């Protein structure tokens, strides 16, 4: 390699080292001051807010609940690439490399400052990013500049220095990431100290037969660790239950605030509810069922006394997410609750600790606000929410739907169990039918109904013959509404169509 080529390679390494050192320092400072002020998370959240709805849907389809790790990896790679570019610029036309780092640092600071609930201190980690990045870049690239006549040019020693600094910066970044879990550990400690009172109303034991007994079908109750998670937070907010308050305001006769202890003292009730994301494609897995513990939202709204004409409740979470729920859906007697418990335990932080909303019959984008902070009674004509501002519909009632879970793509000839789940929330499933190839629709055997707010398992005994076969399923709700075969995208209010699978028998 020529001397110029060596300098350029070392300049790229120096830029990467500067970027890594800056990231590590910023994350470490955020861990000490305020974990949610992480420059990386702030920029990531900013990117999420600016990303068009169609692109978000593409990412969710491709990565599902792994969309957030994917975004963080992309951001890290991009920052390291920008670091390499900054190194080259600094070598060729100083101080343009440092200017690039300053611009990136200011973008991160701006992203942190505009996050929901941000304070002045939240920009500090990004400013530390900026200072460390500029210092390291100037220091390393300065060693690569042409020397005076007679002096030696860059050597392997320079490459070793850049490599060592990069490794040290990477270690610092790891240390910062580890330290950043301090906030999570504090919340985990707070969760461990919570003692939920015994519920005043418990759910009946699951009736016999809710499971159709076919291996491979989604369990009737989803384990908490497997419950889907889709939200706008790269890292869950760290909310202290001792200082948490819910504000109920807007078009009400009696606005008020309630603490976590006061909410628990209202009397907790258990209920089972199936939740699903509006991004769930036909046959998709962004749907889960749990046993929830909480307080009916209608009780809090009754205390506030909504004014005539109000038709919507705008809920806001600590992450800045907002949802527009129909006032009628929160007061019509369904188990719409402020949940504090999930599957017999305190609500996990990933799912909205200390308090989240659970509303049967509505997609999560208009109802499932996590890390809840406020309920504002208002009107659809007066306010909009996070996703409605991005092209989704104002109201998101869950559509009648069904899914085939088994069999797989290939089976042996003979008797084959075809089975899955169906749902028509807050109405109930009355019938599930299976079509094989283009034959007639055949009634399936239904699992026992636990409630109209949860999904229902179904199965069919299929005599499978050799060849390639197409299986198609549809459901009918208790009002006689048959699941539509019309194919529609998830935007603006949920996908439609019949789940269809091909099975090779042989």
Model description:
This protein is of the alpha+beta class and 506 residues long. The chain has three domains: 3-180, no CATH class; 224-390, Oxidoreductase, molybdopterin-binding domain (Sulfite Oxidase, Chain A, domain 2, Alpha-Beta Complex); 401-505, Immunoglobulin-like (Sandwich), CATH 2.60.40.650. It is 34% helix and 23% strand. The protein contains eleven helices and 19 strands. Strands 2-1-10-5-6 form a five-stranded mixed beta sheet. Strands 3, 4, 7, 8 and 9 form a five-stranded antiparallel beta sheet that branches. A hairpin with a 4-residue loop joins strand 14 (429-436) and strand 15 (441-443). Helix 2 (39-50) packs across helix 5 (96-113), helix 4 packs antiparallel against helix 5 (96-113) and helix 5 (96-113) runs antiparallel to helix 6 (124-142). 45% of the residues are buried. The model has no long low-confidence stretch (mean pLDDT 88).
Secondary structure elements and pairings:
Layout: H1 3-33, H2 39-50, H3 53-63, H4 67-93, H5 96-113, H6 124-142, H7 156-179, H8 182-193, E1 245-250, E2 256-259, H9 260-265, E3 269-276, E4 287-296, H10 297-304, E5 312-317, E6 322-326, H11 327-331, E7 337-342, E8 345-346, E9 356-358, E10 372-378, E11 401-406, E12 410-411, E13 414-423, E14 429-436, E15 441-443, E16 445-446, E17 456-464, E18 467-477, E19 500-505
Parallel strand pairs: 1-10, 12-19
Antiparallel strand pairs: 1-2, 3-4, 4-7, 5-6, 5-10, 7-8, 7-9, 11-13, 13-17, 14-15, 14-18, 16-17, 18-19
Helix pairs in contact: 1-4, 1-6, 1-7, 2-4, 2-5, 4-5, 4-6, 5-6
């Amino acid at each position: 390699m020529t001397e110029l080529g060596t300098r350029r390679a070392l300049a790229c390494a120096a830029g990467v080292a500067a970027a890594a050192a800056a990231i590590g320092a910023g994350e470490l400072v955020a861990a000490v001051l305020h974990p949610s002020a992480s420059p990386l998370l702030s920029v990531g959240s900013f990117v999420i807010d600016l990303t068009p709805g169609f692109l978000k849907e593409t990412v969710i389809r491709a990565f599902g609940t792994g969309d957030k790790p994917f975004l963080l990896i992309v951001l890290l790679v991009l920052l390291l690439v920008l670091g390499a570019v900054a190194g080259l610029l600094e070598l060729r036309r100083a101080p343009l490399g440092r200017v690039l780092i300053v611009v990136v640092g200011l973008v991160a600071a701006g992203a942190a400052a505009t996050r929901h609930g941000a304070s002045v201190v939240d920009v500090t980690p990004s400013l530390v990013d900026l200072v460390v990045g500029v210092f390291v870049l100037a220091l390393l690239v300065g060693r690569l500049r042409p020397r005076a006549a007679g002096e030696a040019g860059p050597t392997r020693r320079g490459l070793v220095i850049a490599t060592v600094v990069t490794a040290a910066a990477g270690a610092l970044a790891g240390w910062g990431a580890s330290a950043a879990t301090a906030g999570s550990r504090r919340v985990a400690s707070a969760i461990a100290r919570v003692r939920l009172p015994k519920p005043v109303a418990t759910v009946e034991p699951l009736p016999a037969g809710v499971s159709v007994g076919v291996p491979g079908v989604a369990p009737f109750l989803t384990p908490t660790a497997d419950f889907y998670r889709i939200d706008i937070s790269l890292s869950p907010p760290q909310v202290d239950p001792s200082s948490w308050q819910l504000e109920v305001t807007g078009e009400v006769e009696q606005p008020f605030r309630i603490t976590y202890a006061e909410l628990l003292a209202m009397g907790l009730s258990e209920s089972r509810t199936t939740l699903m994301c509006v991004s769930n494609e036909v046959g998709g897995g962004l749907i889960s069922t749990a046993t929830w513990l909480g307080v009916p939202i209608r009780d809090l709204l009754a205390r506030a006394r909504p004014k005539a004409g109000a038709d919507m409740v705008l809920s806001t979470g600590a992450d800045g997410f907002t949802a527009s729920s129909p006032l009628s859906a929160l007061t019509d007697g369904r188990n719409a609750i402020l949940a504090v418990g999930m599957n017999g335990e305190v609500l996990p932080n990933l799912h909205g600790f200390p308090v989240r909303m659970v509303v049967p019959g509505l997609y999560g984008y208009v109802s499932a606000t996590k890390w809840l902070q406020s309920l504002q009674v208002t009107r659809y004509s007066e306010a909009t929410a996070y996703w409605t501002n991005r092209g989704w519909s104002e109201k998101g009632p869950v559509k009648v739907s069904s899914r085939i879970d088994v069999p797989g793509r290939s089976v042996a000839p003979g008797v084959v169990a075809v089975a899955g789940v169906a749902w028509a929330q807050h109405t109930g499933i009355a019938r599930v039918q299976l079509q094989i190839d283009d034959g007639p629709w055949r009634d399936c055997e239904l699992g026992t109904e636990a409630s109209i707010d949860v999904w229902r398992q179904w199965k069919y005994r299929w005599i499978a013959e050799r060849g390639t076969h197409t299986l198609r399923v549809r459901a009918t709700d208790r009002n006689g509404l048959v699941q539509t075969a019309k194919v529609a995208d998830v935007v603006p209010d949920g996908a439609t169509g019949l789940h269809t699978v091909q099975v090779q028998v042989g």
